[in-house]
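Late entry, written up from scratch paper. The run itself happened at the end of the previous shift, but nothing got recorded in the book at the time, so transcribing now.
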Amino acid sequence: MKKVALSALAAAMISGVASADALTLYSDPKTGQVYTTPGEGRVEMGDFVSAKEVDMQLREVESKGSEYQDKMSKYVNVKSKAKTLEFSGTHYFGMTSVSPERTGSTSVDDSRGFELRRNYVQVKAFFNDKDYFRVTMDTTKELASTSTTYANMYAKYAYLYLDKVLPYTGVEIGIAHRPWIDYEEHNAWRYRSINKVALEQKTNATDNGPDLINSADLGFNLKTKTDIFSSEIGMFNGEGYHADKAAKNQNNSTDLSLEWRLTGHILGSGMKVGKNDVTKDTYANLSTYGLISKNHKDNDIVEDDNSEYDRSIYGIHAVYNQPEFLIAAQYYIAEDEAQNATVGNGKEYKGWSINAEVRPMQDWTVLARYDVSDIDAVAAGTGVKTKSQDMKQTLVGVAYKYNKNVSFIASGKHITDATETTAPTTIAAAKEKDVYMLTTEVKW
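Output as recorded:
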């Protein structure tokens, strides 16, 4: 690289000498005499420069080249067997204030503080224009309901992507995208920095939700794109990228999770799915999604047949966007069926969500969302159902795009979560909380 730069510098300077101080000479073929001016019978010999001046210019090139090398020595050389290395980052910083209320109890205090809700740093190593390996590290530090939490770092994604392994289809292999959440976050709910999508939302200091799935897991994901149809179909461990896979004394494929998304693109925007510019593009998508996960186990569940369960999820989703506004809605049902129904408990889930954006002027967006989550616990042996959660959430906010890399969001949400005590008809007093956030999004 240095040799190329120095050669270019030398060539540029020498060409400058030739253009400024070149002397055209002529000769008489009969006598061989050389002249500095044209004349009858004289033939042009070409342009010549002074050897002394060239020597002086080359000495100057060497001097400047030495300065260039000194300057370049301050930088680190990057070596890779990949054709191209692409670095990028996504970061969500925020100030959060939570004001919980619980009827008949004074044990819950207000909480507020700064959060690092996401800190993605990633690199893609391209082997050619389409195939690459991606690694994304994820660091998170949020307000939580326990004092044992700290800043955790995970390998969020670590996968090989191969393009067109089948017609119109590529594949991710490794810690890969699961089919649903990434699609919803890029096409319908674009504010992960203030709230997760309905299926992923957890119950903690700032949220209440079903916590059914997360965005990445070990496995593979086949991703198909055409103008009118796109899909993702994959097989995964099922517990997610930061949980453990239950190890049972059996070896068959039913212990994995089959997951899918099937989307019809009514306005023919399927080739741009995930890369739409919502302020310029118009699209209308209708999707169905789900999973069937065998031998599922969460982090806090002991590894045995009494606490493990089979999880199934089925949902539908629709979104319409044009430069002035966006509206999206979904409905889902899910079930956790205990593998040992006489001992382990199960759960049934039903929920829906609707969200919208209005863009009244350039760089400004007004957003809103409403969620309902209904969870019933199914008692082991008897099958009696009791209300585990009856959550309703209302969220509103305003976003300002400062530039292509930075956005600011002010938002607030009100959550009501009512649960039953001992019988299906006895509802405990509702727990309520208000959550206010000031958020900075950074992307580069």
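The two ends are 27 Å apart (CA to CA).
(Scratch paper discarded after transcription.)
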